[in-house]
Amino acid sequence: MLATQFSTRCLADRIRRAYLRRRPWWSGGDPGSSVWAAAASALIQAHGTDRRLPLDPELFVASQPASDALADPWGDLVGALPIRRYRRRVRDIVRRLREELRGEIRLMIGRARRGQSLELQIKFGGPGLSPLGRYVAARRINREDLAEAIREAALRQHEGCPLYRLACRGLLTEGDYPASAPLPYPINPMPAGAVVGWN
Average pLDDT per run of 10 along the chain, which is 199 residues long? Predict the structure, then answer.
């Protein structure tokens, strides 16, 4: 119970700070206001219902429309509509990341057809290739040795954006992903997504 209350308070404070960064002119960001805890609770509940939604208060706030004319944290952050906006933003990010990875695989295949060794592309990279894209390619051609050689670089890419885990659904099995899936997700840093595919 205390851990849950502490987590909610931490999330609430991060939501408040993210909201104020988007509205530096607003003077109504009282840390004691119940709106921040309500927003944090809504985010925690949404994450509990759909584990694909990360507990990322900054992304949650960034998913909401910003208005220079009005600050209304109750309307902006609490209720079903802010959660729908957040879910839509996460889906859009995952979709873009998946397309990015698929594009890298297509690029490597195209270069291989023109005579460039796929193994060398995976090992050394090249223009338009990320460590995670190369890692996915290594796994897909069953080259464990090449995948292991670039696992650390792929892990760093994941740590920069844990939503890559969801983007890799359908490209890799969960067990082949370079990062393990901690559950429950940590509050800080932004957690990795976990479970089923999201097309």
Answer: 65 95 86 92 94 93 84 92 97 97 97 96 95 97 96 96 94 92 42 32
> How many helices (H) and strands (E) would you count in the chain?
9, 0
Q: What is the signed CA dihedral for 63, 21, 18, 158, rounded to 10 degrees?
A: 70
Picking from 41, 90, 61, the residue whose alpha carbon sits closest to that of residue 191 is 90
Q: Say if CB 122 and CB 150 are below 8 A apart.
A: yes
Q: Is 8 helix (H, G, I), strand (E, B) or coil?
A: helix
pTM above 0.70, yes or no: yes
Angstrom distance (rounded) from CA 197 to CA 42: 23
Closest by CA position to 100, among listed 163, 193, 26: 163
Residues 6+ positions from 30 with CB-CB distance below 8 Å: none
